[in-house]
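Is adenosine-5'-triphosphate placement plausible here? Inputs below.
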Amino acid sequence: MKPRDRLRIAMQKSGRLTEPALDLLNRCGLTFRQSRDKLFCFGEGEPVDLLLVRDDDIPGLIAQGVCDLGIVGRNVLNEFKNGAGNGAASLTEWRPLGFGRCRLSVAVPQDMNYNGPEDLAGLRIATSYPALLGTWLREKGVDAGVITLAGSVEIAPKLGTADVICDLVQSGGTLVANQLRETDVLLESEAVLAGPETLPTDERGDMVELLLKRLDGVIQVRESRLLLLQTSRTSLEAVTRLLPGGPQPTLLPVAGQPDQLMLQALCAGEVSWRQLEEIKKAGAREMFVLPVEKMLA
Ligand SMILES: Nc1ncnc2c1ncn2[C@@H]1O[C@H](COP(=O)(O)OP(=O)(O)OP(=O)(O)O)[C@@H](O)[C@H]1O
Ligand SMILES: O=P(O)(O)OC[C@H]1O[C@H](OP(=O)(O)OP(=O)(O)O)[C@H](O)[C@@H]1O
Ligand SMILES: [Mg+2]
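Reply from A.M.:
I modeled the complex. Tokens:
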């Protein structure tokens, strides 16, 4: 293979991961000029280009060295590592990316009596993830038939082509619509930045390091929220105890109300309605949760 001096990242051409992946790269300061065939996007500022492909092809492209990194679901990456890519150059997750969250689960007809994996013995299981399912069945010591389907797996029991299924679940809506019930979770998945365990030693390696640093910053900011509220000095301790994790809050005086304080806290993740209601019960009022756009400690 010809040596390359520009970093090449593979990502899904069109699907659930396309928009969030592009958005993430943009936030890392990477912008791309789209070529007419839309399969290759040339990086405008930094020496980083994109290859837009079917998500299933991403691990193989990295293993072959056609791309240096890829943005792909853990489900697809691990299916490759357990199956087609078994024994190929080892791939690793450089970063979990926090979108495309779903799980790979076994689901059975709602009216089936199911007590555990041993009840799958002798049944036919339809899946798009034969390698991950095969590994799990071996671990459980269960001998079952694996029927590989490219899609519409949930319909297989109704059609009589399988008894149970193993497929991706997010809200669970598709399972309910097909009278199925989730029984075992094989894998918790989200989009990841995948790459070889050993990074290139040339300038591309330096670019990967820079990208990882920017990614860490972007992910930290994306998950941060600024919580603003007012509280009386007497409620301060109770309110502070309920604050979601993060650095020490900042306290500011409120003009004309000496017993009141304005509190500002950086929270490491989402602040739910339930948490807000609890904090309010402890004595807080005038509460605001704001997204953080940029952060420089
Ligand atoms: N319902 C879901 N909710 C959230 N994430 C999901 C869901 N279903 C799948 N995913 C994640 O998004 C990834 C891409 O899903 P998508 O349906 O776009 O793939 P696809 O149909 O295989 O696309 P391609 O044409 O690239 O092969 C999945 O591999 C998985 O990691
Ligand atoms: O638990 P839920 O929220 O219902 O999501 C799960 C469904 O989402 C995915 O399919 P998708 O909608 O991408 O359809 P496809 O596999 O036919 O492309 C997955 O294959 C499940 O069928
Ligand atoms: Mg696919």
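Short version: Residues 54-56 surround magnesium ion (ligand 3) (CB under 6 Å).
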